[in-house]
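input
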Amino acid sequence: MGGPGAGAASGGATKRAVVLVDHGSRAPEAHAVLDEMAARLRRRLPGRIVEVAHLELAPPSLADAIARCVAAGAREVVVHPYFLAPGTHAGRDVPAQAAEAARRHPGLRVRVTEPLGAHEGIVDAIVERIDRA
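output
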């Protein structure tokens, strides 16, 4: 998992952070996938703080991940629900938990993205998997 400030940049500019949040699982291999995605984002977004969180079943919570971002100097956090569809978790639970966490950190700007959805990149990934089957 990303430690505090993983991927953080130094300097005077406002530090920005990304938190990837999934459902959570009791299976370590499920968490390993999110950790790998976070590592890839750190490489693609140098200078950004990138953390992971889970809604249920395992730490860290979304509130804890946002707190780690703040401790590393973030003033802006973009939360990305790592879900395919805009169901209850992506549409209600993640925004509610993000808003609650933001209230604990005055001056912090927190935004929540849409879930992955029917993005063309997802279609490409599915086609690739079908072709390899």
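quick obs: The chain has a mean pLDDT of 90.
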